[in-house]
């Protein structure tokens, strides 16, 4: 039996018990994990150093090494994250609907865990702890597959977690990490319908697409954000600039940052250079259409491909459009259904944009950077869904649950 | 461009408009379809006859021919179904959550259509009309792929639908039927992520499995029901028999009928032959474990495979179990997560069963035959989901929708 099947099977076996474990016991288990991490900061940092050394030896890019590093401060952030999760309401057992059927059978629609959730992710080892906390809180077992460059960190973290769970009502078997580095193990996970109830990939566009293409287990796609800002004819100039700068430069490497700015032609004739002054001052490279270049010679030429690109960098694509309709059409073609914003004082255009743009989150006169579980007040986030099935946008605890119908009769049969 | 891509593209193009079409206009369109069907009963019956003739020539089984037949009465049932759909509340636009974020951005979580839904189904041509009615009501366009043996019926029905829509606010383009019979067209549909937002297969286990295995488009699995009745030690005898007979014989060919009866050993020693008398009187063949056969020589021997089988016929598998735990374990291994029932006067065992059995619907002292959108009061049903992502159990109108976040600011940026 392969490592994947073996671990999935072990985890699945504890799902039934975990699904009925009390909120208090689940919280105690999560706090025990937090305690375990605090007591092992030195060990974690030492194991993490092995990953860093290997990454340096492999000439890994600095941005990936940055994500890989676990310092005492970052470990304490992980601990704080776990503590926050214990403060959140447990969604499991919530009665979503209750009614008597015609035959007087009492029906309850009740929130239940999925069962076993697979999480496939890349460099950042803090995802290991986040995912464990969120899955256990919602009564789910979890099968983790982290990036190969974080293997020492992840193995160490999961071993601390399993040890911490030993004294609790949550079985250490509920948390499993695939340690083998062969990529085929991921493909094996993706077809393990017998044990896995859900797979959530977290990472770059390549990973997400691979999972969507190969998985027969239900998937929630997350995180690819080719987000647009549309500056309409009647947009306030300073507001447009503030939101463009916030969306592009506050944290360029995250999925809710802006990748393309669409500018209404008349606004562009009057204010494009002012907008571009601000972008260029923030070291943003602008790649634009021919019309943009005519209005501002500092703009470099954009290719068709640029409009599809999630730069995740100080680069923005730009295009002049004739109307809100043309903006909506551009987003329909190039967008990734994540977050889209319109700046305008025209209420009709705003409503048209919010109604017709097909995305998880649509903004009027606000930054796309707000698309985030914590900003939305969910208190947690396992990822941001860009698909429409089950969950859309920031996913908190309820999005990690399913439901079942419980029916109570006194011998009723169907007529 | 293939027929599938061409039709999907046409349908996708009207999604944006359809998503904002008023409830009144959508209802008028559905009533126009109903009117069109009523005016064309003779044409439909004549086209349907071609399918029947071909089925007879192909020596198709009588049960499939029964599902294929469209009589005046069945067409009027379809019309009535459409009229009922217009009476239901439109879920689109419902505000599911509204709150001000910390930054005073107003957030609304609003129900929206999926966009373009693919329905892949088998013999029954009434599904064509059901699916069109339910999809249009929820603002979704629909790409249909029916069984090849119903091609004349389906082509005729869709052509009537498209003609009826011409005078309405809903574009005839919103309804598309794949007419080509090549099976490769289905596979093409299943990887059309660019246009299709969701695929729902309706049919036998083979079709469902094929779709789950091959689709990269998100899927909702429906309808395979390997349902169990567990008769516990403290089960009332007459209630157990009534529910066994109702579950097995009221309509054996449907997914919520019972396929296996699990009997607690002590109850079995006292009452098994009485139960079996009733089953045999209803012409039910019983396939049982060795213990069952010892208690009742009329029981034939069951194979391991029988416990996995959805007989959809007057056949039931039977097994003696020692406890509610053993019943739950059997269901965990062999069940299809559809509907499961326990008969008992023991409240603790009932709760254990309802909490721990992992299925869409779990029943205490009631028949599994209640798992149905109409019985649950949803007023409609596109299918019964046996997966946990998005929808579980009977799917009504809300299950054919997604949601989006709309956010209204006054220039807020993220700090």
TrEMBL record, chains A, B:
GO biological process: L-proline biosynthetic process
Superkingdom of this protein's organism: Bacteria
Catalysed conversion reaction: L-glutamate 5-semialdehyde + phosphate + NADP(+) = L-glutamyl 5-phosphate + NADPH + H(+)
A Gene Ontology cellular-component term: cytoplasm
GO molecular function terms noted in the UniProt entry: glutamate-5-semialdehyde dehydrogenase activity; NADP binding
Main location group: cytoplasm
UniProt keywords, alphabetically: Amino-acid biosynthesis, Cytoplasm, NADP, Oxidoreductase, Proline biosynthesis
The keyword Amino-acid biosynthesis is assigned to this record: yes
Subcellular location: Cytoplasm
Pathway assignment: Amino-acid biosynthesis; L-proline biosynthesis; L-glutamate 5-semialdehyde from L-glutamate: step 2/2
InterPro entries in the cross-refs: Ald_DH/histidinol_DH, Ald_DH_C, Ald_DH_N, Aldehyde_DH_dom, G-glutamylP_reductase_CS, Glu-5-SA_DH, GPR_dom
Residue ranges annotated for the Aldehyde dehydrogenase domain, each copy included: 37-279
Entries under Pfam families matching the protein: Aldedh
The keyword NADP belongs to this UniProt entry's keyword annotation: yes
EC number per UniProt: 1.2.1.41
Family indicated by similarity: Belongs to the gamma-glutamyl phosphate reductase family.
Function in brief: Catalyzes the NADPH-dependent reduction of L-glutamate 5-phosphate into L-glutamate 5-semialdehyde and phosphate. The product spontaneously undergoes cyclization to form 1-pyrroline-5-carboxylate.
This protein's name: Gamma-glutamyl phosphate reductase
Origin species: Desulfuribacillus stibiiarsenatis
């Amino acid at each position: 039996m392969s490592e994947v099947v073996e671990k999935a099977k072990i985890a699945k076996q504890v799902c039934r018990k975990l699904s009925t474990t009390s909120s208090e016991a689940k919280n105690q288990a999560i706090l025990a994990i937090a305690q375990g991490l605090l007591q092992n900061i030195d060990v974690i940092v030492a194991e993490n150093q092995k990953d860093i050394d290997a990454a340096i030896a492999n000439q890994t890019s600095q941005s990936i090494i940055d994500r890989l590093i676990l310092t005492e401060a970052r470990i304490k952030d992980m601990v704080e994250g776990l503590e926050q999760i214990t403060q959140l309401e447990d969604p499991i057992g919530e009665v979503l609907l209750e009614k008597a059927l015609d035959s007087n059978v009492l029906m309850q629609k009740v929130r239940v865990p999925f069962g076993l959730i697979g999480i496939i992710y890349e460099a950042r080892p803090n995802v290991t702890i986040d995912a464990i906390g969120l899955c256990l809180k919602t009564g789910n077992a979890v099968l983790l597959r982290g990036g190969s460059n974080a293997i020492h960190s992840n193995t160490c973290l999961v071993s601390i977690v399993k040890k911490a769970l030993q004294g609790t009502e949550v079985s250490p078997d509920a948390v499993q990490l695939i340690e083998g580095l062969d990529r085929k193990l991921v493909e094996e996970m993706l077809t393990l319908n017998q044990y896995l109830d859900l797979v959530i990939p977290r990472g770059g566009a390549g990973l997400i697409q691979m999972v969507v293409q190969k998985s027969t287990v239900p998937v929630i796609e997350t995180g690819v954000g080719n987000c647009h800002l549309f500056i309409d004819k009647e947009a306030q100039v300073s507001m447009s600039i503030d939101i463009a700068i916030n969306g592009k430069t506050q944290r360029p490497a995250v999925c809710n940052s802006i990748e393309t700015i669409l500018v209404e032609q008349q606004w562009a004739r009057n204010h494009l250079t002012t907008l571009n002054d601000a972008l260029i001052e923030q070291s943003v490279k602008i790649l634009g259409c021919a019309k943009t270049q005519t209005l501002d010679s500092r703009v470099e030429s954009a290719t068709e491909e640029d409009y599809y690109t999630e730069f995740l960098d100080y680069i923005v694509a730009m295009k002049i459009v004739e109307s809100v309709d043309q903006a909506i059409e551009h987003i329909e073609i190039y967008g990734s259904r994540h977050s889209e914003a319109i700046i305008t004082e025209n209420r009709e255009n705003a409503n048209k944009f919010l109604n017709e743009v097909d995305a998880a989150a649509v903004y009027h006169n606000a930054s796309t950077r707000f698309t985030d579980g914590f900003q939305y007040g969910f208190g947690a986030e396992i990822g941001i869904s860009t698909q429409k099935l089950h969950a859309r946008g920031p996913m908190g605890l309820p999005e990690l649950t399913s439901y079942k119908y419980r029916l109570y009769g006194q011998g009723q049969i169907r007529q």
